[in-house]
Prior knowledge:
The structure is a single chain. The chain has helices spanning about 15-30, 30-45, 45-50, 60-65, 65-85, 90-105, 110-130, 135-165. With about 160 residues, it is an all-alpha fold. The N and C termini lie far apart (about 50 Å). Pfam families: Globin (PF00042). Belongs to the globin family. Keywords: Heme, Iron, Metal-binding, Oxygen transport, Transport.
Amino acid sequence: MGDIPEPGTCLTERKKTAVRESWAKMVSTWKTNGVEFFFRLFTTFPNIRAYFKTLDGLDQDALKASSKLRAHAINFKHSVSSFIDNLDDIDCLVILIHKVTENHFRRNITPKQFEDAFSLFTTFVGDVQEVDEFTLNAWRATLATVLSVLTEHMKTLEAQMDGHA
Ligand code: HEM
């Protein structure tokens, strides 16, 4: 039973459970994990950091200590939690992903930046938790679903912009 992929998200129950458990562990120490994740994201992809104007000019130590970074990490956590909590309610999940897409489309962020962030996130999970390959693959599958909904919605938003050009 737990191995049959559900048609909406293409995730099996086992994969959803693995992701839920891994995320629950991640959020239990999110104050540290969140800052560390964004710190790595910004160091690995300076082009992603460039979007965060409120963090301009901070050196590495100031960035790690920044309350703005902590606040942003908390916004991100709430949003990801809303996705994970709704893996069983695909209609709601799609709307939640559309909202995030719209908020980021306004900032000219592209699917490529999400793809980079997601790939780094999976690596990060493997670095900070004792997880098996099954769980990492479950994360990859979950984030691939999020990315595909987001990419489709970005195309729609772009087409709407073109229509109004
Ligand atoms: C699933 C992945 C992501 C989630 C859930 C997420 C979530 C959020 C949330 C909830 C906010 C605050 C609300 C808002 O202002 O819209 C936010 C702000 C922001 N996000 Fe994301 N985000 C994600 C990925 C990204 C990526 C890949 C970038 C890459 C550039 C990005 C850049 C930003 C920026 C620049 C802000 C504004 C920060 C500020 O000035 O306070 N986000 N994000």
